[in-house]
Specification:
Aminoglycoside 3'-phosphotransferase, Chain: A, domain 2; seven-stranded antiparallel β-sheet; binds the ligand O=P(O)(O)O[C@H]1O[C@H](CO)[C@@H](O[C@H]2O[C@H](CO)[C@@H](O)[C@H](O)[C@H]2O)[C@H](O)[C@H]1O; globular; carbohydrate metabolism; 3 domains; binds adenosine-5'-diphosphate; EC 2.7.1.175; ATP-binding; Maltokinase
């Protein structure tokens, strides 16, 4: 399928005139939801690699603060049905005269990409691999998910979903590593990878993962909002979610080496450091810093809870899917802004529990007037479900839970300030509450 694979050596593509590829990308990248460097104008980027994946589709890695993966469709003439995916028309450089699109929006390119995954092999520095035990049929119709995402996902015939990582870091991506390891443990709560692709240049890194698609699934966020709007109880679902998370934590603890019990003082110092960095970026946090710090300091004296282990790392209601009366857990990438080594390190499982508890609060705050009792009931049910399976009750050590919830709320403040400033009041309300209680 792949005819040629051209690796363009590291090459400084300064923005300059907006009609070069680099110039077009400097305009286009900051408009993408998954682009992290929105805080300042993008004036320069480096083209790290460019590989022809198939005729009319280039695989590109660019350095623009971080390394980003792009699939660029090139056409001789504008294509009206791809107008929404237009990057622009290059007037200089190797692509001069071509109209360039985000190829993931183009069904033709998306079909070719699936073909590549169905046939393991290489294309320049790219390597396509697959689980030989799973048969992926050809000709499945692609559709690009339009949900708010940190990456881009293509669904093929409602049978498989391909996540194309946008921000690429060296090393194996946990979203390939963890589901693979959990499948080997027989954990049925996480869809197992069936094919994936990586690059060897300019670093060894995972680029995308194909998994079975869970048909007719609704994510926990949509289900929680629906329950809230209808005045329905969500405690039974929350209880089952707690059980499911405990199962996933147990499987993670068997699949990966465990760490020691968290050293409270060290964890508190790391949390305080994240708070300092967040307060530097978000002035609204600054008055609360002393109160929030005292929530962390309590870690020095409270029970450390369960030993550190691999965790999900960015758990919230949007990461869990329900279908056939069961919960499934997705997206093991961790917090996208953190370095990969940190995301792969053993952490306290309380981190995940805190993430989900914060998510009940986020959901409750979508209703007017907001519904703290609803969130409280969900928290209790989730913790009870977790305790029943894991043998450890997250409510046993309130200071531990509060410190992790505070750390998570600080992350959320930074996340919202960068990506969705309109949402900032949601984690800020929690910050105000946690700072007072912590103080
Ligand atoms: N195996 C799956 N089956 C069905 N839907 C899925 C599956 N995996 C992910 N999704 C959905 O795809 C969307 C994006 O997935 P996610 O892993 O959260 O991406 P990102 O890391 O880019 O935010 C979410 O709406 C999620 O619910
Ligand atoms: O893109 P990801 O799913 O990997 O996660 C990032 O985006 C999430 C929002 O889409 C963000 O989650 C926050 O908002 C949710 C509601 O939209 C809420 O349920 C979560 O509790 C809250 O943290 C997540 O933090 C971020 O990493």
């Amino acid at each position: 399928m792949t005819k040629t694979a051209t690796l363009v050596p590291r090459h400084a593509g300064t923005a300059g005139p907006l009609t070069s590829l680099a110039g077009l990308l400097c305009e286009w990248l900051p408009r993408q939801r998954w682009f992290a460097g929105k805080d300042r104008p993008l004036t320069e980027l480096n083209l790290l690699s460019m590989t022809e994946l198939f005729p009319g589709c280039l695989h590109v890695l660019v350095e623009a603060g971080d390394c980003y993966q792009l699939l660029l469709g090139t056409r001789e003439r504008p294509v009206p049905h791809l107008a929404h995916a237009l990057i622009g028309r290059a007037q200089q450089g190797p692509l001069a005269g071509l109209t360039i699109y985000d190829a993931l929006h183009d069904p033709r390119s998306a079909r070719f990409l699936l073909e590549r995954l169905r046939h393991p092999g290489t294309a320049g520095p790219l390597r396509f691999e697959a689980d030989p035990a799973v048969r992926v049929p050809s000709g499945l119709a692609p559709r690009l998910l339009e949900t708010e995402q940190s990456n881009s996902s293509l669904v093929y015939g409602d049978a498989f979903i391909l996540k194309v990582f946008r921000r690429v870091q060296p090393g194996v991506n946990p979203d390939l590593e963890v589901p693979g390891a959990l499948a080997a443990q027989g954990c049925g709560r996480v869809p197992a990878p069936v094919a994936w692709f990586r690059t060897a240049y300019p670093m060894g890194a995972t680029l995308g993962v194909l998994q079975p698609y869970l048909p007719n699934a609704r994510d926990g966020w949509a289900l929680a909002l629906r329950a809230l709007a209808a005045g329905d109880d969500f405690t039974a679902a929350s209880h089952e979610l707690g059980e499911a998370m405990a199962e996933v934590h147990l499987a993670l603890a068997s699949a990966f080496p465990r760490g020691r019990h968290d050293d409270g003082a060290r964890t508190a110092a790391a949390m305080a450091e994240r708070l300092t960095a967040a307060a530097r970026a978000v002035p609204a946090l600054r008055p609360h810093v002393p109160g929030l710090r005292s929530a962390f300091d309590a870690l020095g004296t409270c029970d450390p809870g369960p030993a550190a282990q691999r965790v999900h790392g960015d758990l919230h209601l949007g990461q869990v899917l329900r279908t056939g009366g069961e919960w499934f857990v997705t997206d093991f990438e961790g917090e996208p802004s953190r370095p990969l080594a940190e995301r792969r390190a053993p952490r306290s499982p309380v981190r995940d529990i805190a993430g989900m508890l914060r998510s009940f609060d986020y959901a409750a705050r979508q209703r007017r007037p907001w519904s703290p009792k609803w969130a409280h009931r969900c928290r209790e049910a989730f913790c009870a479900g977790y305790a029943g399976r894991a043998g450890w009750d997250p409510r046993a050590e309130p200071a531990l839970l509060r410190a992790h919830e505070t750390d998570r709320a600080v992350y959320e403040v930074l996340y919202e300030a960068r990506h969705r400033p309109d949402w900032l009041p949601v984690p800020m309300a929690a910050i105000e509450r946690l700072a007072v209680r912590g103080g």
